[in-house]
Amino acid sequence: MHMSDGLINAPTSLLFVVVAAAGLSIAAWRARAELDERTAPMAGLVAAFIFAVQMVNFPILPGVSGHLLGGALAAILVGPYTGMLCVSIVLIVQALLFADGGLTALGANITNMAIIGVVVGYGVAVALRPLVVRRERLRLRVLGGLSFAAALCGTVAASMGFVLEYAIGGTAVSGDSTSLGAVAAYMLGAHVLIGIGEGLITAVTVTAVAKARPDLVYLLRTAPRRVEVRA
């Protein structure tokens, strides 16, 4: 998923540096409301976990591998704005210290994985959250299914961010390289498979945390409570 240098031109790279900077500025401002005595240490653990798991690739197709993006996982456990910051920190460290993703493409990578992936993944999780509240007896199973769907959708959406950036400033614009349609088809197909792997890892991780300490799962802590009205 990491975009390397040279896949998009300089103006497009600069555009998405601005987009990423604006998104992270909003996230840093809004994350203050999410960070408390439970979320703050959890955010550090989530960032470390995502960094470690991203080093583990799983096979997708012959010669193609994928890894956890972590957007939905971070958002479900520590909140969307803190999640954006966690994934961004991982991407910045990887780019600066491990040459994983190009420096000129860092804005685009943050936009795709830390902003689009988190926003879409958390949006799906919130939309499905009433199912967890209604089915108390199956809470962990429903939470696992919810986490799987959120991670799958977030991963596919992040890959479509790549396609958008490629359409704006990729080599397809000049017509001398792979067509945009071929890039979109490949990214969609590959990231549906990656999303399934990401969904499984996210579901297992969120379910394990919820089973041991449900109060540490941000999505559950912020769920609306049922209020019984008695005559």
Q: What does this protein structure show overall?
A:
With 231 residues, this protein is mainly α. It has one domain (10-220): Arp2/3 complex 21 kDa subunit ARPC3 (Orthogonal Bundle), CATH 1.10.1760.20. Helix content is 70%, strand content 3%. The chain has helices at 10-30, 39-54, 71-78, 80-98, 106-134, 139-169, 180-212, 218-221, and strands spanning 58-61, 64-66. The chain has a two-stranded antiparallel sheet. Strand 1 and strand 2 (64-66) form a beta hairpin. Helix 3 (71-78) packs across helix 4 (80-98). The chain is globular and about 50 Å long. InterPro entries: CbiM/NikMN (IPR002751). Pfam families: CbiM. It is found in: Cell membrane. The chain crosses the membrane at residues 43-61, 73-98, 110-128, 140-164, 184-210. One of its GO terms (biological process) is transition metal ion transport.
Helix and strand layout, with pairings?
Blueprint: H1 10-30, H2 39-54, E1 58-61, E2 64-66, H3 71-78, H4 80-98, H5 106-134, H6 139-169, H7 180-212, H8 218-221
Antiparallel strand pairs: 1-2
Helix pairs in contact: 1-4, 1-5, 2-3, 2-4, 3-4, 3-5, 3-6, 3-7, 4-5, 5-6, 6-7
InterPro entries: CbiM/NikMN
Main location: membrane
Membrane topology: Multi-pass membrane protein
